[in-house]
Amino acid sequence: MNKDLFAWVSVDSPQPSKVWQAWSPMERGAAIRKCMDSDHRYAEALTLVEARADGQVILNLHAGVEVSARCDLLLDFEELLKEKVDPANTVWLEPIGDKSTLRRLRGIEVRQ
After folding, report:
1. Which of 44, 55, 53, 52 lies closest to 81, judged by CA?
2. 13 three-class SS
3. Residues sharing a CB contact under 8 Å with residue 70, sequence separation 6 or more, in sequence order
4. Average pLDDT taken over every residue of the chain
5. Domain tally, the chain
6. Does 99 fall in a domain?
7. Distance between CA 81 and CA 85 in Å, rounded?
8. What is the model's pLDDT at position 32?
9. What angle do CA 28, 30, 35 make, to 5 degrees?
């Protein structure tokens, strides 16, 4: 096996800048909302839940977004955040509970 094949695995993740960390949650949210408002795709599909000092951006995805479009939408938005706000920003979706009535009826519990 080629030793260089997995060399990228040992690369450290970018750390949030001092500016990002010094911002209040409202200032971080304002910077993210500005990026959302820059493209109607983001403004219509995403809602900001939380912008953490460690660079994690928690979003809620609206129900109307097609499954086939979600991945590209989220990756494009994360790339925009990294370019315009802070290179350490990572996009996460807000965890939601299991909505399947059939699983609940059968007594199956999905833990988060």
Report:
1. 55
2. coil
3. 61
4. 86
5. 1
6. no
7. 5
8. 96
9. 100
